[in-house]
Write a structure and sequence with these properties.
Two copies of one chain form a homodimer. The longest helix of chain A is centred in the C-terminal third of the chain and has 13 residues. Chain A has 198 residues and is of the alpha/beta class. In chain A, 47% of the residues are buried.
Amino acid sequence: MRQFVVIGHEAPTTPDFPLDDLPGVAGRLDVLCRCVNAALFLSHGIREDVRLRLVLGDTFTLRVEGEEVRGLHPDERSTAARIRSALERSDEAIGHQPVETSPGIYLTRQGVEPTLREVAEEGTLVQLHEDGEPIVGSKAPNDPVFVLSDHRDFTTGEATLLDELDARQVRLGPRALHADHAITVVQNYLDTDGFERY
Amino acid sequence: MRQFVVIGHEAPTTPDFPLDDLPGVAGRLDVLCRCVNAALFLSHGIREDVRLRLVLGDTFTLRVEGEEVRGLHPDERSTAARIRSALERSDEAIGHQPVETSPGIYLTRQGVEPTLREVAEEGTLVQLHEDGEPIVGSKAPNDPVFVLSDHRDFTTGEATLLDELDARQVRLGPRALHADHAITVVQNYLDTDGFERY
């Protein structure tokens, strides 16, 4: 199982955003939509071995299960519509009980900290970080959980929490990449036996 | 200089498409928009060492010069709007003379064959192909020109032409990727000294 967590600092937490302005009014939701694409899509199908979580504004977490999700399309707009329809049902997400808002997509009322603590129980946290060890030559942990930030850096609080949870820091290359590009590169490393091929 | 050519088989050749339905009415223009993103964007800027060509429906070729382009945004919709406004000026593209439709973006009235013959003069063609030699362990040519197809396979005619132009066939991994993901993976290989690091 490959896992990805993307923290969307400015992502919407209510469904009242227009699909015509994802980068603006919708708080760079375009970035998160491309992360869904990068995490889930192969040329001819869905990556069933993937679990992706998007943390929306430190309030909700949207979980996408590759094995269960249906009818997902690769474009930003339709993915944003799926996120919006999930937020329309946020009233049903009570306590830490997720609500399945469409097949394989679950909304939970929890922000960054409980989500990171939850995934730390499910695998080994790997933080993509420009000061991390190079991915080339390093070995992938079993059940890796890659944690990324959207267009902004991790907050001090998030970085401290990742340290506390023993997140490894890994660097993909000399150039800082968008979160979705980073996910695509990581997928290729894992596809090609990842860190073990050298 | 890194070059990418993406052949958009169903891409629009007139500007009368809606920005609200890129995957449908606009002939999977969403794929081409993500290719622009993957080819041009770094986390904090534009890749100035990149030249990208999108072949639109075997009729026009849109060329984006990383060194010159201005005001490009990473989301699909705004990129599609840029392509649409280029097509609004297609009358000005006469013969094989390009017209600069916005800074660093050039539209030329030429389809697949003249475009591939043109880029073959500018560098070494590399075709991403599932039967190609693995990118791992192979050496990048100088001035590579990566040629990709959109969501469809290359036509027989395109494949024959690529053979004639001595395009190397390279494989990125065991799983077939979307064109934009393939560009992102190639960029990372080149960023990390690409094929030479092994």
